[in-house]
Amino acid sequence: MPPPNRLIVPPSSDISTGAPTGAAQDADDTLHSTAYDLTGMKKFHRLDRREIQVRLGLLGIMALAVGVWLEQPVFLIHFAIYFVANLAVAWIMRHAPFETSRAGFMTYGLVASLPMSLIVLSTLTLWASDEPFLQVLAMMLLCSNLFNMLTVRAVAPILINWDVLWAMLGVICLVAMEAMTHGLSMRVLVFALCCAGMMLYFVNCAGVIVRFRRRLDAARLSEQERSKMEAIGRLTGGVSHDFNNLLTVILGSIELSRLTKEDAEREALLAEAEHAGRRAARLTAQLLSFSRQSVLTPRDVDIANEMRKLRSFLLRILPPSIWVEVVPPPEGLGNVRLDPGKLETVLVNLALNARDAMPDGGTLELSARDIGIQRSEQVEGLHLAPGQYVVMQMRDTGEGIAPATLPLVTEPFFTTKTVGEGSGLGLSMVKGFAEQSGGALEIKSRLGEGTIVRLYIPVVEQSAST
User: Fold this and answer.
1) Fewer beta carbons within 10 Å, N or C terminal of the chain?
2) All structural domains of the chain with their residue ranges
């Protein structure tokens, strides 16, 4: 298993030569087969708000300085148009029903590149002032947006294509303006040569970045497929192994019960077969929970009340060497909608894991609190929608989990315990329950410092609870 957060480029993909083969070729074919799919393109256009705020803020300061202090109010008008154009493009990209075709794809690129055309217009206006200071600002404005093209917008080649066209048109206009002012002199020819060299360099860089990103995407898809097949292999191997053991017990007990003549022994064998059958049923329930297909009976639950009831139960199943502390939740903790029976099973499972991590004793702390998520956040690879959540937290002072092991603990049949001490389905079942309830599971741990497990569950809306 590769270390977490490390991109492994498979041997079938040659980054340096750009000749993917095998699985990487299949992934690359998949990328090309969706060349006109606008879904991913529209998602890409929803850029990070911070980048947009910084870009518009700095351009606004620049326009204000040039417009007011240098008495060039036209740039305030340019910025106002640029600001409105960005809002309009964002709205169009979100709502316009472009066709999934070459024409729709090109239309999308043209609309998305309109802000770049306004940057080119501002560049030409600055250059036309014939003041060296403003001409330097013009080149800085153009080059900074070309840099933005190579970084932020390089994910979508169609955006780069349109941006390059606008930039080339702007450079041609700059050369034409110089020729009209100074004639076809050596100065103008050198200026044209330098501008052409700069644009060729940017075009070459854009091509390199696009190809490199495409190969990385192909390698990433190939790695995801490999990881998926590895997980499927572990899952099927674990299921077949566990069920084979249970079937051996069931069939063996039934066969022996037919051979025995003593009623007491026959009853004991049948009881053993029944016990193995119930273990198989529990294993099936855990697998369903992991696959988010478990049958739940959700209802509105007061988490504070559930925590109070759970403490007395934990005191009975945990050894005296473990101190159980339930932190009183804050007043007004929101209700959640979930299956209370499954919630108890989940929390008991987490408590038993904490017990195993503290063989010499320690502290187990259970708490809950409200949090508000203003915009979509990612928790352990799952995006949580904006809204109010109750976070149930269980913290232990045990041995902790190694960094290399932590990403694997929620995978089915993965366990660090010895044979017979755990099935490896506990945390995968907990994760499945959290996600099926509309939330997420988060695990933080350090060796020697203990583990923190958090369950995020959405708060029930007031209207829904009444």
Assistant:
1) C
2) 34-183, 236-290, 299-465
